[in-house]
Amino acid sequence: xxxxxxxxxxxxxxxxxxxxxxxxxxxxxxxxxxxxxxxxxxxxxxxxxxxxxxxxxxxxxxxxxxxxxxxxxxxxxxxxxxxxxxxxxxxxxxxxxxxxxxxxxxxxxxxxxxxxxxxxxxxxxxxxxxxxxxxxxxxxxxxxxxxxxxxxxxxxxxxxxxxxxxxxxxxxxxxxxxxxxxxxxxxxxxxxxxxxxxxxxxxxxxxxxxxxxxxxxxxxxxxxxxxxxxxxxxxxxxxxxxxxxxxxxxxxxxxxxxxxxxxxxxxxxxxxxxxxxxxxxxxxxxxxxxxxxxxxxxxxxxxxxxxxxxxxxxxxxxxxxxxxxxxxxxxxxxxxxxxxxxxxxxxxxxxxxxxxxxxxxxxxxxxxxxxxxxxxxxxxxxxxxx
Length: 386
Prior knowledge:
The protein is of the alpha/beta class. It has two domains: 1-121, Up-down Bundle (de novo design (two linked rop proteins)); 124-260 and 307-386, Rossmann fold. It has helices at residues 12-22, 32-43, 51-72, 76-94, 101-121, 164-170, 172-177, 191-195, 206-217, 235-245, 262-275, 286-291, 296-302, 332-341, 367-382, and strands spanning 125-132, 135-142, 151-157, 181-185, 222-232, 251-255, 319-324, 347-352. The longest helix has 22 residues, at 51-72.
C-alpha cells in the first residue's frame, strides 16, 4: 500500500478519512497541497484527541475567508472553488467529533460552503427537496447539458460517511458528460438528513428509494423507463434493497458491495476497536450515530435488519457490483456472496485488481476507473447491449 493511501501508518482511522478527502481531488473540491499541509501538522499530533478536527477546521476557515473575499470582489467562480474546498475540509473536520452541537455546526458549515460552491461552479445543478413521509429528503439534481427531451437518470445514495455534495461530483459530472441526469440524495442516516434533520438509517431503504423514483419520474426531462438506482459503500446495501423491492427502476448498481450481514460486520469492527481503536475506518461512535442510538449494543442489534441474505434473490433487474480486490473496509468476499445470491440473469460483478488499479474501497485509489466502468455498464444496459 502506497504512502499516499496510508497517510498515517498504523492509524487506519485517520488514514481512511484522509484518503476519502484525497479521493475528491479529481473533482476540484480539494487540493493535494492543502491536504499535505494539514497532514504534516497532524503527523506530530496523533496523540491529541482534538487535533484532527482542529487542523482540518483551520484549513477550512482559511479558505472560507478567501471565498468570502473573492465573492465580495465579484469573482463568483473563484469564490466557488474556495467554497467547495472549504466545505470538504469542514466535512473532514467533523468526522471524529462526537454527536452534539459542535458536530452539527461543523456539518452545517460544510453543507453551506459546499452548496455555495456547487451553485457557483455548475449552472446545470439545482438544489431540490424530495417528499418523504410528511417531510422531505435534501438532494441535488444535476442535468446533462445539451440534452433535449426525457433522458436516463441515475438516483445515487451515499455511503455511511459521505454526502450528496460529494456524490453529485464524482458521479454526476461523469454521468452528465454521457447524457444522464443525476439525483444525488441524502437518504435517512446520510449527509444532511442525518446531520441537520436527525433522520437515522433504516434497513427498508425501498421507502426512500420509492420516494426518489416518484420524484424523478414526475419530471418531464426524465425518461421514467430508464431510471437507475445506485449506492456506494454502505449505499451498496441500499441500492440492493431498493432493486429488490421497486421494479420501476430499470437497473441497479452497488459501487462497493454492502451488506451481506451488517450485524456480523459491526461485531467484528467492535472487536477490532476494543483491541486497537486506530485499526478500523470508523470512530467508536459513528455507527451508533448513523443508527440513531446512543448505545453501541443497540446499534449493533438494529444492524440485524441490514442484510441482503434474504432479499438478494428478489433482485431480478440488471444489477452491477463493482469492488476492489484489496478492499480493507469491506472484504471482496462480500461482493462474491451478494453476487451469487442475486436472482437476476443479467447480473455482473467487476473486481478491480492491483494490475488495473482501483483496488481499494470504492476505488478511492483511482475512483475514475470505477465511475467510468459503471457509466459504460449503465449506457450498455439501457441500450439493451447487456
